[in-house]
Amino acid sequence: MSGARSGSRVRDREGVERVPEGVVTIHDVAREAGVSIATVSRALAGSATVAPATAGRVRRAAAALGYEPNRAARQLVTGRGQSVGLVIPDLENPFYSSVAKGMQNRVRAAGLTAIIADTDEDVAREREVLAQLATDVDRLILASPRAADTDLLALAARSRVVLINRSLAGVPAVTGDNADGIRQALGHLLALGHTRIGYAGGPVTSWSDAERRAGLTAAVDAAHDQGRGVTIVDLGAFRPGPAGGLAAADLAISERVSAVLAFNDQLALGLLGRLAERGVAVPEAMSVVGFDDVPVARLLAPALTTVVVPAQRMGAAAVDLLLAGTPAARPEDGPGALLRVLPVELQVRRSTAQAAGRRER
Amino acid sequence: MSGARSGSRVRDREGVERVPEGVVTIHDVAREAGVSIATVSRALAGSATVAPATAGRVRRAAAALGYEPNRAARQLVTGRGQSVGLVIPDLENPFYSSVAKGMQNRVRAAGLTAIIADTDEDVAREREVLAQLATDVDRLILASPRAADTDLLALAARSRVVLINRSLAGVPAVTGDNADGIRQALGHLLALGHTRIGYAGGPVTSWSDAERRAGLTAAVDAAHDQGRGVTIVDLGAFRPGPAGGLAAADLAISERVSAVLAFNDQLALGLLGRLAERGVAVPEAMSVVGFDDVPVARLLAPALTTVVVPAQRMGAAAVDLLLAGTPAARPEDGPGALLRVLPVELQVRRSTAQAAGRRER
DNA sequence: CTGAAAGCGCTAACAA
DNA sequence: TTGTTAGCGCTTTCAG
């Protein structure tokens, strides 16, 4: 094994010395600093067993040469990759864009790289993506995964996994406080005098939707206990894009509800658009509440009343959980042991008003 | 060098044979198929110099064992990575979300992985990101880069680079037809009788904005040649987010223009919001035209008239250009040689109407 | 505290 | 057509 192979290539065909471009290896640094490559490796890794003077010399040499360690080589020997994967249902959904942004920022701050994959809200696609990603990434963040519990568990057994908007025994996860969010939203509508309220749900496979529905049921029960009557009309399950909101709007009108709680802002956006098209004034004739608070929500006319979910923070939190010494999955712990629930808050804007019947107050 | 080291680990401490999980190497496949690792490598790479029978055996063995080649190892030896990087200014800008989505889809279809990095519309951040990315990716797609020509050229000399929304001598690029788009938009406004039109520009560092301004000037000159008078009021340069649109709206009002051409939809969104806030009816009192056609544009009330730029297709096209045998950068060719200009089309919706003075027609 | 040396899993000459 | 072998650049024992 010849120890001095690199460096020769810093001379081009004319034999002129040039700055080695991009191909500076650990050997070059070693030669420059007058030490062995092992020492360079240790010094740059911040090992305590390197004399301060030596370490300084190495660091200076590395900087002077513009040395950047080769990630492939490092990964090959350590077996641990330098990247984390993020799987999200739809990059064009602003909520996930924000999650991705927060995640990507934090990942890069940690000196790692973020690999992002989009599954188009499709289970089969998700499976493909996961299989492909699993081969070159051993740390994964899954946002709103549609996969079955067993598949997720199998994945978590091989790789470090953090879930966003889903909880599973023993797998660390980050979610928003769905039940509380829907409770706040319902409370707001009740305070405005609405008694017949539609719920435009998300996909049946959505864990978040299940949580929000459960929270809604609980909140309705609580209201009844306090002697307040409310009727929730289940408008159905919709694809969580604006298109789904169109259908939901028509249903809301024919069901004669005075307010609609939408599974997410995308749905609410579609609702607003269709309602305007059909000449139903918002909020005068119909109140609409969203969920997520995507950036455009406040720019709409009327601005959307919605539950603020800290999307970027969720992405960042997931990274933190992933990078922290997450204990191995232990199903005995049950869900919740590693669950980070972020608080959410209702943001009242222009899309909600008093129920029509109560207008005279 | 011991040729048979792996495989021993398929027995765990109790000595029970198990399916080797995730650590199947080329050696395991070679043993299973009864050939050498070199043959496995060739067979799986689809080399023609392998006997069909052997190739079949290898492929079967690989499948049976669930073999997935180690990317780090491959990259280390070939020097060529399996991933392509995408650098975009802002993931939360829906236009770039779409670009990212199109890019990511195509990249994954090609069996590669997409690394996405966000620069927050910041030159310094972009530099950082580029430096970090350059170390582990040798194929890069840069969307609307803010970096100086020289830096970009230097980068292109080391890595395969494709630009989106920027053109540079010898570097392949994909853009929308900015001049034509603005021409269509202006023509629409002229047809509606507007004669005093505001232009809400993007950042001064934006190549797209420069193109659109140039296109606007040319279109105005053409109009004058046809005896149609138009005055374009430069409202200024704004950060391309909705916040920028707020300021632009106030300026548009005080400048008494009857229509505004916005650099992009984000700006238009902010404009619409602020205009509504100030009680200026759109389109009755003020027409607004955007650029990009982000998904929400059609959902606004009023729906936004805008220039449709095929964002996803741009992302995909950039990948195609990147993966095709792109010729090395040859500045002699000048810009244009490797430039793929995608057609754009004005989509007329509700945010534009006849100029107030002409209402009586 | 430092250096020598052994590979990580794979591809690509070079032989056979 | 196939096998042998030399590394890719790096981390990490194991000796000094």
UniProtKB/TrEMBL annotation, chains A, B:
The keyword Signal does not apply. Keywords: DNA-binding, Transcription, Transcription regulation. Residues 24-78 form the HTH lacI-type domain. CDD domains: HTH_LacI, PBP1_LacI_sugar_binding-like. Signal peptide: none annotated. Gene3D superfamilies: 3.40.50.2300, lambda repressor-like DNA-binding domains (1.10.260.40). InterPro entries: HTH_LacI, LacI/GalR-like_sensor, Lambda_DNA-bd_dom_sf, Peripla_BP_I. The keyword DNA-binding applies. It comes from the Bacteria. PANTHER family: LACI-RELATED TRANSCRIPTIONAL REPRESSOR (PTHR30146), TRANSCRIPTIONAL REGULATORY PROTEIN (PTHR30146:SF138). This is LacI family transcriptional regulator. It comes from Occultella glacieicola.
